[in-house]
Amino acid sequence: MKEFKGVWIPYEILTDIKLNDKEKIVYSMILYLSKETDCIISNMYISELLNITKIQSSRIINSLKKKGYIKVEMIYKENSKEIALRKIIPIYKNVNTYKQIATKPINTNVKEIINNNKIYNKNSHRYKSERDYSNFDWTSLY
């Protein structure tokens, strides 16, 4: 198995509302590990990385399978019903896996955007200093 050094969660997975947090992490791991070869990962390995039980990791894999994100192939030992290997194959649902993608740029000049009123003005009163507090009874706060 390829050495696992970390996980990068693609934007499409991060914003997918059908997946919970753990499913996003596990699916990203599967995408990373299956980049060059088939992903062969055990429930024990997932449970140790995420500090969850083997049953929880099994439920996550089954949930991803049920939702159509992965396909699971079992390879059995010869003349036996014992599982020798489990291959997890990701089904790519509009996921740009580990490639540089052009996403929405992060606004670095927020002051300029606020000054140009290009943002939603729901809280625009916060930036105004034209408030009049002369008739307010400040002692009522104490």
Written account of the structure:
- It is a single chain.
- The protein is an alpha+beta fold.
- It has a domain at 11-90: Arc Repressor Mutant, subunit A.
- Helices cover 31% and strands 12% of the residues.
- It has helices spanning 11-14, 21-33, 43-50, 54-66, 110-115, and strands at residues 39-40, 70-76, 83-90.
- Strands 1-3-2 form a three-stranded antiparallel sheet, with helices on one face.
- The longest helix is centred in the first third of the chain and has 13 residues, at 21-33.
- The chain is elongated and about 90 Å long.
- The termini are far apart.
What's the short story on this structure?
By secondary structure, the chain is of the alpha+beta class. It has a domain at 11-90: Winged helix-like DNA-binding domain superfamily/Winged helix DNA-binding domain (Arc Repressor Mutant, subunit A), CATH 1.10.10.10. Helix content is 31%, strand content 12%.
Given as residue ranges, the uncertain stretches (5+ residues, pLDDT < 50) are 97-104
**Helix content class:** 25-40%
Give the CA-CA distance, first to last residue: 66 Å
- Largest β sheet strand count, sense and barrel closure: 3 strands, antiparallel
Order of helices and strands: HHEHHEEH
Mean pLDDT rating? 76
- The number of E-state strands comes to 3
Cα shape? elongated
Strand content: 5-15%
The CATH homology group name of the domain at 11-90: Winged helix-like DNA-binding domain superfamily/Winged helix DNA-binding domain
Protein structure class: alpha+beta
CATH class assignment of the domain at 11-90:
Mainly Alpha
Q: DSSP helix count?
A: 5
Largest sheet strand order: 1-3-2
CATH topology of the domain at 11-90: Arc Repressor Mutant, subunit A
